[in-house]
Amino acid sequence: MIPSTRRIKLGVTDDEIALGTHLIHFWDTEEEFERGVRFIELGLLEDSQFCVLFGHEEANVHVLEILRKSGHDLDHAIEGGRFVILRRESSAAETLANIEAAFSSAMSKGATAIRYLGNLGMGKVPLPGKGADEVIELETGATELAARFPCVIVCMYDVNTVSGRLVLRAGFGTHPLAVGRTVLHENQYCGAL
Length: 193
Known about the structure:
The protein is of the alpha/beta class. About 40% of the residues lie in helices and about 25% in strands. The chain has helices at about 30-45, 55-70, 75-80, 90-110, 130-145, 165-170; strands at about 5-10, 15-20, 20-25, 50-55, 85, 115-120, 150-160, 175-180, 185. The strands form two sheets. Strands 5-4-6-7-3-8-9 form a seven-stranded mixed sheet, with helices on both faces. Strands 1-2 form a two-stranded antiparallel sheet. Helix 5 packs parallel to helix 6.
């Protein structure tokens, strides 16, 4: 487990967050989505921090648009391996292996912290594999990965398109911390649903 004394600015809220953390950020407005993207922006400003973006195509494109509007040289960050984009196309096991490979690569390049932003929402393409069960498996595995790397994993859930089952089982059920509006708090339902 990564020592909890090492912390980075979260950006979604004004809090600092311990490395090794997996949290959920529920959003339903453009402002809340942009606040989630701020988490990645802060990593792009620090040469020793690496960023991983994961999600369905529409969400990834929107994150990249926001980052480019803010003046970030994404091509340079991608070419240098400081910013990796993973698409939602494979099973939970394959996705977790891809995330672990991205984290290991970042560590081999000297990353002091890894920021992972995942987006869950219903894009044009259905959820891969077993659908909702695949997402629950992915989220459970992400908590385990967070404990092994100097990272913070933020999962953004679009409450306008994600089913109640996913919000409860994958969202509340697997994230030790949650952001609701502008407040970070412990999630008492983690592991209980």
